[in-house]
Amino acid sequence: MKRVYTLKDIEGLKAAGGSIPADAILTPQAKEALRDGLVSVATGAAPAQNKGGDPYPVPDKEIYWTPGSDPKTPEEIQKFFFSPKMQALKALIVDLGLRSYNKNYNDGNGGNFSVRVGENLVLCTPTMISKGRMSVEDMCLVDMEGKQLAGNRKRTSEVLAHIAIMKRQPKAKACCHAHPPHATAFAITGKTPPRCVNPETEIFIAQVGIADYGTPGTQAMADKVGEVGKDHDCVFMLNHGVITWANEIETAFWKMENVEAHCYTSMLAFQIGGPRQFSDADAEKLMEIRRALGMIDQPKNDKFRECNLCDTPDELRPGCVCSSIAQTDVKGTPPNAGFDSKAEDIVAKITQMIISELNK
Ligand SMILES: [Zn+2]
User: Fold this and answer.
1) DSSP symbols for 129-141
2) Separation of CA 101 and ligand 1 centre (Å)
3) How far is the CA of 250 from the centre of ligand 1 (A)?
4) What is the 150 CA–ligand 1 centroid distance (Å)?
5) How many angstroms does the Cα of residue 225 sit away from the middle of ligand 1?
6) What's the whole-model pTM score?
7) Which CATH architecture has domain 74-302?
8) β-pair type (42-43, 19-20)
9) Where are the domains of the chain?
């Protein structure tokens, strides 16, 4: 937000050694004093604002680069790898690792993080390390083929899967991989959580993609993940775990939290009768928010295909009993709601047996 500066403000800035923002509005008296050289204060750059001119923009953690400007010589790469910007990013990854570990998302040495930091540069976590015990010194730098360029430890083999998404989807600049128990339970059964149940998941994840099984760390597996990941913010790797991506690493981790919480609550909801789903029209409003946030459009056949649990094949509604609860809210009371012919048969048979016994 632009600010009006009086002569008194400028004198205060001068005393404090500050500078006037480039977009500052000056009172006539302040303008005159500056023009006449009565006071002199440096003019600074315009304050960072997002496109909408939001006075309180969300801090932008995305990494930008100019094509063709990557460091190339070993000396340039080392300088870049230890630059304040990279050191701060490494510290953020260490912090995310600890948060992820403390949330029980990373068993043993499971999970990894990566951030694309140049046209052909990716910062990533090393192999064989607990995500709860990493330090800034452990981080690695690789190129977009996975070749290690810097770092004392060997890079994670799963960075190949992260790079496979980044190569196919330019919006994917950071990936997070973990084995959170509830989402992984879906992943090892080859199922995805229900749609149109949780607004936050609908916006930030929408349809979870499933990548077929492959040996972890191989290029063949990476390609499978890349093909699915280009159209899905979250990929379940069959019999393995979860990958989420975003324009920056903290958002990628938020998506991991979103999908894990959604899988957990869905499992609980299935146990108490199945989740209530909102309508396609309500879902479309959430899609509008998703689009406004600049997130990717998913393939058309993924959209809302699970909005009515009972219209979808069994494998897409794990554990769901198609009770009248789920259907009533979506499409009105279905015919024979609450009627279970098997149970009715049993009741009839038992009643008949009791009557026969009484008549003896
Ligand atoms: Zn894994």
Assistant:
1) --TTS--GGG-EE
2) 13
3) 19
4) 23
5) 12
6) 0.72
7) 3-Layer(aba) Sandwich (3.40)
8) parallel
9) 1-58, 74-302
